[in-house]
Design a protein that fits this description.
Strand content: over 45%
CATH topology: Porin
CATH superfamily: monomeric porin ompg
Shape: globular
Order of helices and strands: HEEEEEEEEEEEE
CATH architecture: Beta Barrel
Distance between the termini: 29 Å
CATH class: Mainly Beta
Number of strands: 12
Largest sheet: 12 strands, antiparallel, barrel
Strand order of the largest sheet: 1-2-3-4-5-6-7-8-9-10-11-12
Structural class: mainly beta
Helix content: under 10%
Radius of gyration: 18 Å
């Protein structure tokens, strides 16, 4: 319930952050990814400073998240971590005939609480850090493409990284289907996921993405919604 409350409060504030950019494209994104030992929920937006998401240019990225995960500590029983935070970044995207490339650099502010309290945890408590994120999409053939996303956060006393690789096959309309590999690594967690996804499911003006598969401690499922305003 703490996770849902954090995301709900941030979702209420986000529309006010977009005030004054009504003449520009705004990509809104919200979703959740859940496994046996972890949950990550998010809501955010990407604003092009030139008003057009389809062209080269600078981007402003706003992001809020809540997360829960469980890990083992030999000196304690299983530890539950619960928290959330927000990100703000500026980036640049390059659009070419077969390739889209984007890089972001920004700040992350987050807070995690452990239960029972873990004095050995580097992630416990409040922290700020610098985040670098890169995104690449390349059309391999008329039917297949490659998509990769990677990020690295250097924090006060710790760092973490995230990577997702996808191969997509054109399906119906703008839909893509294919395999995905995801890996996350941090001071108290390390997890790899292997599964499949379907993206570009049209629900009116909203796009729905679904994913699911296996991870080291069971299975996972992901749901994401996106819309250009």
């Amino acid at each position: 319930m703490k996770l849902v409350s954090r995301i709900a409060r941030t979702a209420i504030l986000l529309p006010f952050l977009f005030t004054g950019v009504a003449q520009a494209d705004v990509l809104g994104i919200a979703g959740v990814s859940a496994g046996d030992d972890s949950t990550y929920a998010y809501v955010g937006g990407v604003i092009p400073t030139n008003g057009d998401l389809s062209k080269d240019g600078y981007l402003i990225r706003l992001w809020a998240f809540g997360q829960e995960f469980e890990y083992e500590r030999t000196t304690l029983s299983d530890v539950d971590a619960d928290g959330g935070g927000f990100e703000i970044a500026i980036g640049h995207q390059w659009k070419r005939q077969d390739t889209d490339f984007t890089v972001y650099l920004g700040l992350v502010d987050r807070n995690l609480d452990t239960s029972p309290e873990d004095p050995l945890s580097k992630a416990d408590g409040h922290s700020t850090g610098v985040k670098l994120q890169v995104e690449l999409t390349h059309e391999l053939t008329s039917q297949w493409n490659f998509n990769g996303m990677a990020s690295y956060v250097g924090g006060d006393d710790f760092d973490d990284s995230w990577l997702r690789l996808r191969a997509g096959h054109k399906w119906k309309g703008n839909m893509r289907v294919g395999p995905e590999l995801t890996h996350v690594n941090g001071p108290d967690y390390d997890n790899t996921r292997l599964g499949a996804y379907v993206s570009g499911i049209a629900l009116g003006s909203v796009n729905l993405d679904l994913s699911g598969g296996a991870e080291e401690h069971g299975g996972y499922i992901g749901v994401s919604f996106s819309k250009v305003f």
